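Need residues for this backbone.
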């Protein structure tokens, strides 16, 4: 069977006008209402017009992988991780589900990444030098090393819990204020929880920036630095696009407001993280010599 035979023909009859905008020509025929939709109203990824999508968003896409009963436990888990790289694909599916599975997934992923993110920047007894070199600072005992690493992991967890909580509270509040779907509060909470593991990967104290900075040689090639800088922003972009798509296609906000309800929480999250790190400064390694954490004194 050819691709032409399997792909439905959505071409509207000649002279058709948009269901929601009669002054605009129709570009596609919606399979739900069988009426034409203009370029602004037709949502090709969901094969729906915007009006029908708002009536029943969850019907337009498959359920989120972690809640798919046809998959085994490993398939649900890995599928949910992989789904983060397609941030708009299942945005409407966050409608109608329970919060508990999302909270379970968040607990399985975000805390571990947050603790790992704290080890390199917050450790006092180890120096993480270039190209994955690790040397002790002074002569710490084994108990001192274990306590210090545990303490650093705890600080990392604290920083990223506060950051994720600030993002979630602000995002959910704005979705409740400007969303139109009756389940907008629960879908916003689910959207944040299922992607909360992206928070510890990004940011100034994120796991990616710590590990990639640790992996660089003493004098890295400028091209490598640029490429790594691009990699560092990927988790933030994925999270931003995901939350914006959920706001737009699940919660039913307008195009402009779908950006506002994400930009404001991101600013709030960065401010909360920054203020917390300032408050925790006395517990941090020597801020006068930050290079010691990533570059050995031999270099």
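Answer:
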């Amino acid at each position: 069977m050819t691709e032409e035979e399997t792909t439905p023909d959505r071409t509207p009859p000649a002279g058709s006008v948009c269901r929601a905008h009669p002054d605009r020509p129709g570009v596609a025929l919606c399979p739900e209402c069988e009426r034409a939709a203009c370029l602004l109203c037709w949502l090709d990824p969901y094969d729906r017009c915007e009006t029908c999508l708002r009536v029943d968003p969850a019907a337009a896409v498959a359920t989120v992988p972690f809640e798919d009963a046809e998959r085994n436990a490993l398939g649900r888990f890995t599928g949910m991780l992989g789904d983060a790289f397609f941030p708009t694909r299942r945005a409407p599916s966050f409608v109608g589900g329970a919060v508990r599975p999302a909270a379970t997934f968040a607990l399985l992923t975000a805390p571990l990444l947050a603790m790992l993110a704290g080890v390199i920047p917050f450790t006092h007894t180890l120096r993480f030098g270039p190209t994955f070199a690790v040397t002790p600072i002074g002569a710490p005992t084994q108990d001192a090393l274990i306590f210090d690493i545990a303490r650093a992991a705890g600080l990392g967890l604290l920083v990223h819990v506060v950051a994720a909580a600030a993002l979630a509270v602000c995002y959910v509040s704005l979705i409740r204020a400007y969303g139109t779907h009756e389940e907008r509060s629960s879908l916003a909470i689910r959207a944040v929880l299922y992607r909360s593991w992206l928070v510890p990967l990004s940011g100034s104290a994120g796991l990616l920036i710590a590990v990639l900075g640790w992996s660089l040689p003493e004098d890295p090639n400028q091209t490598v630095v640029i490429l790594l800088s691009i990699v560092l922003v990927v988790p933030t972009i994925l999270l931003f696009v995901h939350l914006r798509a959920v706001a737009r296609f699940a919660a039913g906000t307008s195009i402009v407001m779908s950006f506002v309800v994400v930009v404001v929480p991101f600013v709030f999250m960065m401010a909360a993280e920054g203020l917390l790190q300032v408050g925790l400064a006395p517990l941090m390694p020597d801020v006068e010599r930050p290079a010691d954490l990533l570059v050995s004194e031999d270099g």
